[in-house]
Amino acid sequence: MTAAGAPLPLEGITVVALEQAVAAPFATRQLADLGARVVKVERVDGGDFARAYDTGVRGGLGTHFAWLNRSKESVALDLKQAEGRAVLTELVARADVFLQNLAPGAAARLGFGAEELRARDPRLIVVEMSGYGSRGPYRDKRAYDMLVQAEAGLISVTGTPETPVKAGSPLADIAAGMYAFSGTLAALVRRGTTGEGASIEVTMFDAVAEWMGQAMYTTLYTGSPPPRTRLSHPVIAPYDAYPTADGVDVVIGVQNDRGWAALAAGVLERPDLVTDPEFATNRARVGNREKVDALVAAVTSRMGRDELLRRLDEAGVPNATLNDGHGLVAHPQLAERDRWREVGSPVGGIRALLPPITFAGAEPRMDPIPVLGGHTDAVLRELGRDDAAIAALRSAGAIA
């Protein structure tokens, strides 16, 4: 129950996650945010390797791990040992959801494949995440975020005409994580009406291929993939970043001819451009993109950012500041809407944003980021192990 008194929607749901890196932890953190109990199973020898991607959070905690693992319980098991697998079996038997992103086939070899688990418990929801899926020629191919961005074509449409670049955030991981999250929610809804669990497969490649829909259809039906256009849009103009007098670029996005008329008359102070055949229609503007961009930049470069934003807003022209990380952290929209919280972590309290899904009257879970194995003993006691049994498991290296 939240402090506000309203229950979160996933309270009472238990998720056991055999997870690492980004995609699966991103999915389960969304579930934890909404009230699910997430038991994160980690290796005894260092745990989730994302813990050590870097030490950017106060010099002792990886930035990815801090982002993805709040509100979870960490249980460290050696699944190469029968004792470790026995503990995981008991955890899964009490769970609503079992989610894993080991290499294809690895969980099944340990005895935790979807078919075997659901034969024991038909109500269980099993989510298996991977790079390319459980079959096909790429089944066993390594699948890191950048590699999948490349394979699915995302890099081909991102960057400059001369240089393709990957997206700066791990979009392949995030895309797969969000589909695993939404798939789990859908399976929980179906189980609530039918009593039946589910076997769900989510791949990073499929997720990014879905996100490439517009580029895919352009390629299918024009015969040519969309070109890389830096910040601009391949079929809309003006749609780019433009300079200001104080050195901060502002992005202007004109979606239609009415928007062009508002920009031309209200900001550029050139009403003649509204009917000029070189600029009057979007097709004409795209064909004369360099002229359009030069006209816009000549005006914006004489204004400070605040003045330009004010004039664009008054004219009803869509715009945004080209922010960096500093601009995001200091963004007034986050501050005014009280989006920041502090969560505990192995290195002390750190700032974190509230999750994007806001339920009125219910504060999302923002519990601490766990130390490796920080909940092992407590969870084992829930499973009926006494202190002597726990000590024996630890002595054997089956737990940490």
Helix/strand structural class: alpha/beta
Give the proportion of residues in helices. Answer: 25-40%
Compressed to H and E, one letter per element, the order equals EHEHEHEHHEHHEHHEEHHHHEHHEEHH
Mean pLDDT: 95
Contiguous helical run count: 17
Low-confidence stretches: none
Query: What about the largest sheet?
Result: 6 strands, parallel
Distance between the termini: 30 Å
Number of strands: 11
Overall shape: elongated
Spatially, the strands of the biggest sheet line up as: 3-2-1-4-5-6
Gyration radius, to the nearest Å? 25 Å
Write a brief structural summary:
By secondary structure, this protein is an alpha/beta fold. It is built from 17 helices and eleven strands.
SSE layout and pairings?
Layout: E1 14-18, H1 23-33, E2 37-42, H2 63-68, E3 72-76, H3 82-93, E4 97-100, H4 106-109, H5 114-120, E5 125-130, H6 145-151, H7 171-194, E6 198-203, H8 204-211, H9 213-222, E7 239-242, E8 250-253, H10 257-266, H11 282-287, H12 289-300, H13 305-315, E9 319-321, H14 325-329, H15 332-336, E10 340-343, E11 350-353, H16 376-382, H17 387-395
Parallel strand pairs: 1-2, 1-4, 2-3, 4-5, 5-6
Antiparallel strand pairs: 7-8, 8-9, 10-11
